[in-house]
């Protein structure tokens, strides 16, 4: 293997060339360096996360104080400063779309995957650097289209992030923007996932067998397979919905549809449930796309900060693979209420119960790793530990939704929102924040401030639970999830104080992110310098090189001699890349 | 120092494939899911319809589509021959066979154009019925794949073939990948033909 590489390097020069000889725009804008592209993904994704969060902060005003003008900035949106029902729907749809497709996934997969995966397998770049460049810019264009839709005549898409027909087909032009934007985002994901899988499998250095891959590499590869195989059906569905909107077809429009009192002039014969199947065939694996990179990041951080091998590494890996496989056959548990029949519901109820088993195994391996260890409470470790109960709450509250009987009551209420936000917000996002704190020294050569980090952590963990915990109670009180003003119903008015509390917590959560953003921005220049290239005592390959890594990642050849998380009996790390015991 | 990416022209001894070949197979897997979703759409719409609006064998031009099937299958043979010519170190023969492939694919598109225009002439549009919606969407998307293949093959036949002088193995690998993609486009048609025209 090394022989081959050696010959190759003398034979030809396929490489994109040296960092410092390139002009600025080739080095930082249209770079093919996976580290630069990773950072581009990261910065863009953080921007979109803040934007999507901002939309929700405005919506939370309307939810807490219905039909009152938004103070200070309300006049920017409407004449009287009150968030109109139309805008509320647009913000809701775009909040979901932006957070999922433009925020969390690009951060977990695009940023962490791009930056760390080649380093962790000992490669000098991704397998297809130009394709990598293309992936980022296609994603960027998709994002621009989504943002541009706010300025289209009737505003952005307003049919929810799920875009259920027939409403989405008869909706205003924003929906067309949404569909075209999605086609770009899907294409970007496809290119990126091919690149990830090929890099991880083909460019492994000598000695790095599959069962020596760090858990993050495994998580990224399984995620890439989910994106690769689950996204195309949504691309197909997007094309069909575009046809429905632009060419007047009736893929998702049944015969005899009446809109605003008039019969719709279409051929009919379509099936709106078909969209739901195609959509959830992507969107359920998508949930695991959101969570798996987070699971990988948390595994890395726990191993380093407990100075112990991960408990049951192989079981953990098999669980991740099984989870990925199962995620393809649970999608219709989102559709119990569509009347698809008892047989189908029972099947999807069973698979849903089965998929909770590997999730619990993953959590258990992490918990057992913590057990009896001397934990080093760094900021990333705090976030990683918080991830465990948060993800557990998110996962366990999903079980009543996966059981057909209890789903009848809970379906489409705030309970559902509480459930998946626990998985994605204090779950995935906490893990991603942990990753930022953990690998910041790798990327910049400087630490982020510990004090600011702890302020960020404690404020966030309190505020975020204040936002999402009451949702379970509100949902069980029967409040529907997409209501503009729930106080018009007696049961909604009774639960309204919870809404006010959640809104205050959401705004507090926003304030809690300020030290994080300040910390991220200023530590780049003024943070405490790291003393060694491996400040945390990490054992995986990304720590085998300088921090920040040079353009070609590894200046001397690296080789792997052991599993990813091995420590001697006195808790001294035994890095993968060091030969002597 | 410059970045070195291994296994661009020679296969990885552990996996037995080059990067590009693994990449194209993964890409094709995603394409299978894309067309799989469209075929599922056809199956679901047709099986749940009380009265399926039209049958392909009645309203579509089966002889023309048969000729198109012959064109595509032949082009799959010629693209393999073009790859084999490179294996035998014969660039001229490669260009000849690749040229034939491109000609046949143009032939396919021209026939498709006549089919489409005759449908439009009879005022059969995607909005006419669910059958025509499926017909135009699926053959249209397949047609886009044919166009993509033609662009790739023309590039590899023309400016792209310069690589033959500097990196013959890598170039041969590219032709193999283009061939795999082309076979896939062919295969989709082989499913489309009976599903839309015959059943």
Arithmetic mean pLDDT of chain A: 93
**What percent of residues of chain B are in strands?**
under 5%
Instruction: Summarize the largest interface: chains and residue counts.
Output: A-B, 62 and 49 residues
- Report the oligomer: heterodimer
CATH superfamily of chain B: Cytochrome c oxidase, subunit III, four-helix bundle
Could you say what the CATH architecture of chain B is? Answer: Up-down Bundle
CATH topology of chain A: Cytochrome C Oxidase, Chain A
CATH level 4 superfamily of chain A: Cytochrome c oxidase-like, subunit I domain
From the spread of the alpha carbons, the general shape of chain B counts as elongated
- At the first level of CATH, the class of chain B is Mainly Alpha
The whole-angstrom Rg of chain A is: 24 Å
Give the arrangement of secondary structure elements.
The complex is a heterodimer of chains A (about 575) and B (about 200).
Chain A: H1 2-11, H2 24-29, H3 34-64, H4 85-121, H5 129-148, H6 167-170, H7 174-202, H8 215-246, E1 258-259, E2 262-263, H9 272-306, H10 313-326, H11 342-370, H12 379-396, H13 399-402, H14 404-410, H15 414-444, H16 450-476, H17 490-494, H18 496-526
Antiparallel strand pairs in A: 1-2
Helix pairs in contact in A: 3-4, 3-5, 3-18, 4-5, 4-7, 4-8, 4-9, 4-15, 5-7, 7-8, 8-9, 8-10, 9-11, 9-12, 9-15, 10-11, 11-12, 12-15, 12-16, 15-16, 16-18
Chain B: H1 19-48, H2 56-59, H3 62-87, H4 91-121, H5 130-157, H6 163-166, H7 168-198
Helix pairs in contact in B: 1-5, 1-7, 3-4, 3-7, 4-5, 5-7
């Amino acid at each position: 293997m090394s022989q081959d590489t050696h010959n190759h390097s003398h034979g030809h020069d396929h490489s994109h060339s040296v960092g410092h000889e390139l002009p600025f725009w080739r080095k930082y804008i249209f770079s093919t360096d996976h580290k630069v592209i990773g950072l581009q993904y990261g910065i863009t994704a953080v921007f979109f996360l803040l934007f999507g969060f901002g939309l929700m902060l405005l919506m939370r005003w309307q939810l807490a104080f219905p039909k009152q003008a938004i103070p200070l900035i309300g006049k920017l949106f409407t004449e009287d400063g009150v968030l109109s029902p139309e805008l509320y729907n647009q913000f809701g749809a775009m909040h979901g779309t932006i957070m999922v497709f433009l925020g969390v996934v690009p951060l977990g997969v695009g940023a962490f995957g791009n930056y760390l995966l080649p380093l962790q397998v000992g490669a000098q770049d991704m397998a297809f650097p130009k394709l990598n460049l293309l992936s980022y810019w296609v994603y960027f264009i998709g994002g621009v289209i989504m943002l541009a839709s706010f300025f289209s005549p009737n505003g952005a898409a307003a049919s929810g992030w799920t875009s259920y027909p027939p409403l989405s087909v008869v909706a205003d032009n924003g929906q067309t923007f949404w569909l075209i934007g999605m086609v770009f985002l899907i294409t970007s994901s496809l290119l990126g996932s091919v690149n990830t899988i090929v890099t991880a499998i083909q460019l492994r250095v000598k000695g790095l067998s599959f069962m020596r891959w760090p858990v993050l590499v495994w998580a990224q590869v399984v995620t890439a397979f989910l994106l690769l195989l689950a996204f195309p059906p949504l691309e197909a569905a997007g094309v069909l919905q575009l046809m429905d909107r632009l060419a007047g077809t009736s893929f998702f429009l049944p015969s005899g549809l009446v809109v605003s009192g008039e019969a719709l002039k279409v051929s009919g014969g379509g099936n709106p449930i078909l969209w739901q199947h195609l959509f959830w065939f992507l969107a359920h694996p998508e949930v695991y796309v959101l969570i798996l990179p987070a699971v990988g990041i948390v595994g890395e951080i726990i191993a380093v900060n407990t100075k112990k091998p991960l408990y049951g590494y192989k079981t953990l890996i098999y669980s991740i693979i099984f989870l990925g496989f199962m995620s393809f056959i649970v999608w219709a548990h989102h559709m119990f209420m569509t009347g698809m029949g008892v047989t189908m519901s029972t099947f999807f109820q069973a698979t849903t119960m089965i998929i909770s088993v590997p999730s619990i195994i993953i959590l258990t391996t992490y918990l057992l790793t913590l057990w009896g260890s001397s934990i080093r409470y760094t900021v990333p470790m705090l976030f990683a530990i918080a991830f465990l109960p948060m993800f557990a709450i998110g996962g366990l509250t999903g079980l009543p939704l996966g059981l057909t009987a209890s789903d009848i009551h809970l379906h489409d209420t705030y309970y559902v929102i509480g459930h998946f936000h626990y998985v994605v917000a204090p779950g995935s996002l906490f893990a991603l924040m942990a990753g930022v704190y953990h690998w910041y020294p790798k990327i910049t050569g400087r630490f982020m401030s510990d004090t600011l980090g702890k302020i960020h952590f404690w404020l966030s963990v309190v505020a975020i639970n204040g936002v999402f915990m009451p949702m379970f109670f509100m949902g069980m009180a029967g409040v529907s999830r997409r209501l503009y003003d729930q106080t018009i119903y007696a049961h909604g008015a009774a639960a309204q104080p919870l809404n006010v509390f959640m809104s205050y917590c959401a705004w507090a959560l926003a304030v809690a992110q300020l030290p994080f953003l300040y910390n991220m921005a200023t530590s780049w220049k003024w943070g405490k310098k790291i003393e060694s290239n491996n400040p945390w005592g990490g054992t995986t390959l990304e720590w085998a090189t300088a921090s920040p890594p040079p353009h070609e990642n590894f200046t001397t050849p690296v080789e792997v001699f052991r599993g990813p998380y091995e420590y001697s009996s006195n808790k001294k790390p035994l890095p993968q890349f060091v030969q002597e015991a | 120092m410059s970045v070195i990416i291994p296994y661009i022209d020679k296969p990885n001894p552990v996996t037995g494939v080059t990067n590009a070949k693994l990449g194209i197979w993964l890409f094709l897997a995603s394409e299978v899911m894309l067309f799989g979703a469209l075929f599922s759409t056809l199956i679901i719409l047709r099986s749940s319809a009380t009265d399926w609006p039209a049958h392909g064998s009645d309203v579509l031009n089966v002889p023309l589509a048969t000729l198109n099937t012959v064109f595509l299958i032949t082009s799959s043979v010629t693209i393999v021959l073009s790859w084999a010519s490179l294996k035998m170190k014969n660039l001229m023969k490669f260009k000849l066979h690749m040229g034939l492939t491109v000609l046949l694919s143009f032939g396919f598109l021209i026939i498709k154009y006549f089919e489409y225009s005759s449908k439009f002439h009879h005022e059969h549009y995607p909005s006419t019925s669910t059958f025509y919606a499926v017909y135009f969407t699926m053959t249209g998307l397949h047609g886009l794949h044919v166009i993509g293949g033609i662009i790739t093959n023309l590039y590899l036949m023309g400016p792209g073939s310069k690589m033959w002088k500097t990196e013959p193995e890598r170039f041969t690998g590219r032709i193999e990948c283009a061939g795999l993609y082309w076979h896939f486009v062919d295969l989709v048609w082989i499913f489309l033909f009976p599903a839309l025209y015959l059943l």
